[in-house]
What does this fold into?
Amino acid sequence: MDVPKTVIAALLLCSTIAACSTMSPTDAPETTADSSPESPVVARYADTAITLTELDSAFAESAGGPENAADSSLSAYREFLDQYVNFRLKIRAARDAGLDTLPSIRQDVQSYRQELARPGLLREEVYEPVARTLYERRNQAVDVSHILIRTSSDQDTLSAYRTAQSIADSLERGVPFDELAYRNSEDPSAQKEGSRGYKGRLGYIRAGQIVQPFENRMYAVEPGEVSDVFRTKYGYHILKVHDRRPAKRPVQLSHILRRPSGASDAPRQFLDSLRTLIREGDLSFAAAAKKHSEDRKSSQKGGRLGEVNPQGLPESLREAVTELDSV
It folds into this structure.
């Protein structure tokens, strides 16, 4: 981190404050005052000097890395210098007293090092791989169906698993997945014609939209294949992957809904007339939605549905959205 010379001069005036907690006592180097370091000296105590390079390194470590340190304010940097000088003074006093040779102290230092290492280990071994996997998966959308057998208590877990396994056996014998989903799935949408999830068909889903065990299976199973029986917090599932394709970016979507009335074409004709008024500039989309949309929830917001993933929409609406140049 580059610090202007005027900043260095200001830092030289700092005194002491609370102890610095980012370096273990046995690791802190000392630079004697009569040495000639290439880096500028920013503080001195007794016969020891602290260089700008050393301070920058300690500051970056305390901030969690050079990038975080670069975003820090001058006041934070000055405060850290005070802490660091006080910390080094305490280390010197401890060494002069011979405390660094005591087994109990060395054990405490080792425990402290492990505590410091743990956040970095979690970041490198857990958080970063999970974030990378999520990013890679979100570039792919998976068209998936599932069958759910719920579990409500520990007592019926085995029974639910056996039911799910018997369905899996039926699939192996060639019984169509959608038929088994309609007859057996305990997802309420499986029996609701016209709803997402009818006969088990959930449509296109991306990473982050479903519980982790389900997500892991749907990205592991190849298109046209069926998973084994697996469990989530909802119960036991079997899923089938129909397709996998590049995910489309979410869009900001607004709509006007008119519900069909029997075989009458009046709703479509009415929407066509509204469309003409909107396109010619005689009526705004938001005003038309507020006055005429039968979707009560979105009509009060000018028809706005917010950010929507096109691949999660019903097929006819998805196709209409795909054809639009802008939303």
In short: Residues 103-137 form the longest helix (35 residues).
